[in-house]
């Protein structure tokens, strides 16, 4: 087995056929460019390059290892693929400044932690095996999960666990983390899991899944500033779309999906006052919702690809340029 095929076999893209179907009208435009904002191991990108022989794909990822593996996998496509080390909220800089493009025809975002990161034990994303308490999507920069649990005060830990993990036992967990680190700094995922098991009642553990699920999600989101990046990335991604272009987003938890829903609804709703007799052209919606609400994976995919269980897919099409009064302004 070649290295590129081994990389492909490690990850099955979620709702791949539906993504291609939703992107097709935009990618059939001559000279079409797709930005895969969450390249990962390149599964979605490879499928796009095969299905649309004239399309060029720009793949963004903050993880250098993912870029390297995907680059090898996609090397046969030559200059039709360009990999860029960047977080998805840098999409405007990548498209306009680094690549000199005025706009693109499509944007794809497959959010959440990648199979690569979960599979690499030493990255510390998984609560199933003991590893360094890291959780950085870009392991070359920024604070780790160990930095968070060892330096944040108890109140801030409670906030993170509640907001990002929706953890009902946040107060108890935070208190026990602080008590642990007063004796010795916490450095391993196994140490954290032990605290979580002691903090969450046995009855809840039996029915609520692994006790580490919510806390690990919360720490990962905090370490990588995921929601802050996504909140900036969504309007920026819409702005780089040409008229007629499409954006498809796959979210895996309610906090992400809520941000996607809000950004799409903002563009698909008239901004005119409700009492105006005639809607001004500058207040008409600049997006059209392509999906009806959030779509979920079908039964066959749920059986064959466990990662698809929590996916919520939304798509929108650009109808016209964003009205000036609706454009986000950087502080």
UniProtKB/TrEMBL annotation:
Protein name: Ribosomal RNA small subunit methyltransferase H
Superkingdom, taxonomy of origin: Bacteria
Organism for this UniProt entry: Pengzhenrongella sicca
Annotated GO MF terms: rRNA (cytosine-N4-)-methyltransferase activity
Keywords: Cytoplasm, Methyltransferase, rRNA processing, S-adenosyl-L-methionine, Transferase
Function of the protein: Specifically methylates the N4 position of cytidine in position 1402 (C1402) of 16S rRNA.
Pfam families registered for this protein in UniProt: Methyltransf_5
UniProt entry tagged with the keyword Methyltransferase: yes
Originating gene: rsmH
HAMAP family with a match to the protein in the record: 16SrRNA_methyltr_H
Region Disordered, residue ranges: 297-331
